[in-house]
Amino acid sequence: MSQAAPEPRKTLDPDIVAQWLARHPDFFVGREGLLQQLRVPHPEARGATSLLERLVHDLRGRAEQSEWRLEQLLESARHNEAQYRRTRELVLALLEAEDRDALGQALATQFSERFQVPALALWCPSSLTDDEPTPPQAPRQVLDDHAAQRLNALLDGRASRCARLTPTDWKRLLPHAPAPEQAGSCALARLTLGEPMGYLVLANPDPDHFRASMDTLFTEYVGDVVARLLERLTPPRHG
To answer: How many whole angstroms from its chain centre is CA 76?
Structure first.
């Protein structure tokens, strides 16, 4: 008589085992010895390690990841606090300006000392300067058609923008500041308050200081503050 062929060995589906254990989390209660016998792959070396050692390793990794995330949050909080303090000092200094030249000087000083912006120009249309007995003092400049066209081209239809600044553009838009030999970078903001109030140009000789991908919300905010102060500091016209 021929012997019957042995039945194929049956194995449990791992997914079914995982689902069953998930539904029975108390399975290992009273079976702690089984936990000590289980061996799992070591995450950093060949061979196996006990389940408990693997759990300890995973928990340590999670703790280190959580610590790194917490440090990132703290660093972000410290940066935001420093930015708030710098912005506060900037706005307070601008509010103390007694005239438009003093406003321009306060802008230049604050941005140079607190924001690593060594060059700045405040372009105002002639309608805001023709009532002054003396020409505006740098960094204030009288806006002409050529400068307005170039600033509009750099803004490309936006209210504010970061862009590269060629040496030629630097000399034209920041005539009072030494021009770099190579291209620099700038952040531009259009000043408006019901009517055009001019342009604010923040510049750095480092071509990567102001990158096109940077957010310009802060530049727009400063521009809004400057536009309101320019209007406040403009003497009333006499008809």
So the answer is: 11
